[in-house]
Design goal:
81% helix, globular
Length: 286
């Protein structure tokens, strides 16, 4: 929760820094921050130090995805941006699968310090690869931060498309995030009586569903930009229907219904990327 809170609070400051320094600098800096947090996490013996490690990871995480989204929107033609944004999100989803399977196996086999020390090494490798391979689009960075952070936020929020993007992102992303990152696992194990291995498998089904649906939603968004809201609303309605079916059961739901639930959550998640597309198309490029 500390990591997620820092991630959320850092979004606007990171956006201001991104406008000034560009994606390459922020992705590399974010990777270094996350690597530092993982290294600290591999060595800590007290809870306050673990909190600090999670703060570093959340701050680095906050600098990463939004920088990739900006890089995609500047380098590629507008019609291809939705698909490539979805593919960027899919890479993040694959990272969740890595965390759920091989990282857990390494954790049990080699121990806490080795597992998180390995993550720190991966983070440093990502920083080096970013410096070597990533290039910002020339001529789009600001030389100074104009109007102050609050002034920029006020100007952007006044654009109706920004608010539409915000609520679209929230509607599609909130259900799958709270399920995967907060209480989904205890809901499946304690509330539904599933074995931990079965609950983990359902998590994987959810992520795979998101991976499969992402490119399809990206193509639809690029081809039918005036129908983007339909996708977001469909995600919200189907999610509500799936949860209603599960929660109306007098006892634990049958496994097939839980599979339907996690598939619906996974398919709806990529709809949140449409929020970025609204923000891109309704605001001036700078």
């Amino acid at each position: 929760v500390v990591q997620l809170t820092v991630y959320a609070l850092m979004q606007v400051p990171v956006g201001v820094l991104l406008d000034r320094f560009g994606s390459r600098a922020l992705i590399a800096s974010g990777a270094v921050l996350m690597a530092s947090g993982q290294l600290l996490l591999s060595l800590v013996t007290t809870l306050p130090a673990a909190y600090l490690a999670r703060v570093l990871i959340g701050a680095g995480d906050a600098a990463t995805f939004i920088s990739v989204v900006r890089l995609v929107s500047l380098w590629f033609p507008p019609r291809r941006v939705p698909v490539l944004t979805q593919l960027s999100g899919i890479l993040g989803s694959l990272g969740q699968i890595v965390a759920a399977v091989p990282l857990v196996a390494l954790l049990h086999r080699a121990g806490w310090s080795t597992a998180f020390g390995g993550l720190a090494a991966v983070g440093l490798l990502a920083a080096c690869l970013t410096i070597i391979a990533v290039r910002d689009v020339p001529g789009v960075r600001s030389t100074a931060i104009p109007a102050g952070m609050l002034g920029q936020v006020r100007d952007v929020v006044r654009v109706p498309g920004t608010r539409l993007g915000f609520w679209s992102h929230a509607l599609a992303q909130f259900p799958v995030n709270v399920f995967l990152l907060l209480w989904g696992f205890p809901f499946l194990t304690q509330g539904q009586g599933l074995a931990p291995a079965t609950a983990s498998a359902l998590f994987t089904v959810c992520i795979v569903s998101s991976v499969v649906a992402g490119p399809v939603i990206g193509v639809m968004t690029g081809r039918h930009p005036l129908r983007r809201s339909w996708i977001v609303l469909a995600a919200g309605v189907t999610t509500a229907l799936a949860w209603t079916a599960v929660l109306l059961q007098p006892g634990p739901s049958p496994l097939w219904l839980l599979v339907v639930l996690v598939v619906v959550l996974g398919v709806g998640g990529p709809g949140s990327m449409i929020g970025f597309d609204y923000a891109r198309t309704f605001n001036e490029r700078e």
